[in-house]
Amino acid sequence: MEFSTLVISSNVLETFFSTSIKTINNRAKPYIIDPLTYIYGLESIDLSPKRWYSKLVSHYGLDLILSPGVTTITVGHLLMAGQATNSLRNLVENVTNYQKRRILDSSEFDDFTDIEGFQGHDVSPDLFVPRFLIPPYFYMGYDVEDISDIGQSQWLRVNIECAKHAVARKETSEKICAVILISKSLLFFPEQIEKLVNEYSTTEVDAFMLWVPDFREYREPEQLLGGFVKLVSTLSKLGKPVFNFYGGMFSLLLSKRGIAGVCHSPCYGESKDPFAERGMLATVRYYDQDMKIKVPYGKLVEFLKLTNRDYCDCQYCASLRGVVGDTTDARGKRIELAAKHFLMQRSSEILSINADDAQAIVSSFKQTLELCEQNDPNGTYGDYYKHLKVWNSVLSKALT
Ligand SMILES: [Zn+2]
C-alpha cells in the first residue's frame, strides 16, 4: 500500500507548466500524467474555450481526426466494424508520447535545468519519466450509452483497443496502466462487473486505475460500496496492481482485497466528478481522525464533543488554532495547515493498515459510532458519522 504517486492532469500541466516541473522535481516522487482523453468524448461538457483544450487537441493529433469546428470525438472515428482504426492507433501513440516527452522536450525544462545547474543542483531527467503511461480512455456506462449490457458498450471496445495498442508498442522499461472510468450505477450489477473485468483481462496492461466519478465513499449505499469491493477483488485476481484514482479511507481499507494504492492530486481530492465544474470555493475542511471524514473547521469544537476528544496534538493543529482572522492570507494558511494535519493522519492510518491493522480500524468505527449516537441523541450531526455504520457492515464482510 502506498500513498506516493502524484497525479498531474494534462490540463494542469499545460496551464501551470513551469510550476508543474518544479513540483515534480521538489517532491522527487513518482508521478503520472492523466491525459484526460475522456473529455474529448463527452458531448455534455464543452471546454473548447479553455486554452489548454486546444493545446491538447494539437498534442494528441485530434485536429487531424476531427473536422473543423467539431470538438467531440466519436466511436466512429476510432472503430470500424469493431476494429481499431488508424486514427485510434495514432491517438494512442500521440497520447503516450505526450506523457513521455512533453516535459523533457520543452524549452521550459531546459531553462529549469540550467537555472538549477547554475545553483549547483543537478536535475535528474529520470525523475520526469512517468511511473506509468496511460492509454487514451473514455467514459463508459449507462450515463453515456443506451446499453443494457456492458458487453455492448462501444466505448468499452475503444478502451480495450487503446490499451492493447499501447501494450503492443511499449518499450520494455515502460509500464502501461489502464484507467477504467465507469458510471457508478454499474456497481449495482455483479454480473456486469464480471463482464467488464473479463474484457480487461485480455489487455495485458501492467496495472489498473479505477475511477468511478462522483463515488463518495461517505455517501454511497451499502449495495454500491459492496459493488466497489467486488470490482476491486475481481480485478485484482488478474494479478496486477489496482489503484483507485480518487479514493479515501474506505478504499485504503480494501488493501487486503487488492487495492495497491490511492493517488492524490496536489490538492487533496478523494472523489472527482468529470461532469462537475472545476474550481470549488476553497473552505477549510478539517479531517476528523475518528469519524474519518472532513468536517467544517468552524464547527470543530462541536465535533470534538461528539467523540469526547480534546484537540489534536499534532504540530500542525497547534499552529492552525493560532491562525485567526478572515483575510485571504489567514484562510490560505488555515487550508494549508488543515491539509498537513490530514496528510499526517492519513499516513499514520496507512502505516497501521500496512501493519495489518485494518480490522482494528474497522472495529473502531463501531465504538466511534456508539459514542456519536450517545452524544448526539437528536442525530443533528448524523450526516457526518452515519457512514461508519455502512462501512462497518460492508468492510466486516469484505475483510473476513
Ligand atoms: Zn492535527
| Dominant shape | globular
Q: Please name the CATH topology of the largest domain.
A: TIM Barrel
Strand order of the largest sheet: 5-6-7-8
H-E order = EHHEHHHEEHHHEHEHEHEEEHHHHHH
SS-based class: alpha/beta
Instruction: Give start-end ranges of low-pLDDT stretches.
Output: 277-281
**What radius of gyration results from the CA coordinates?**
22 Å
Total DSSP E strands = 10
Characterize the structure shown.
The strands form four sheets. The protein has a four-stranded parallel sheet with strand order 5-6-7-8, covered by helices on one side. It has a two-stranded parallel ribbon with strand order 1-2. Strands 3-4 form a two-stranded antiparallel ribbon. The protein has helices at residues 10-15, 17-27, 51-59, 62-65, 75-78, 86-101, 107-118, 154-169, 190-200, 222-236, 249-252, 300-306, 315-322, 328-354, 358-375, 382-385, 387-398; strands spanning 6-9, 31-34, 79-80, 83-84, 177-181, 207-211, 242-244, 259-262, 285-288, 293-296. It is of the alpha/beta class and 400 residues long. A hairpin with a 2-residue loop joins β3 and β4. α10 packs parallel to α17 and α15 runs antiparallel to α17. Residues 277-281 have low confidence and may be disordered. It has two domains: 6-262, TIM Barrel (Alpha-Beta Barrel), CATH 3.20.20; 285-398, no CATH class. The protein binds zinc ion.
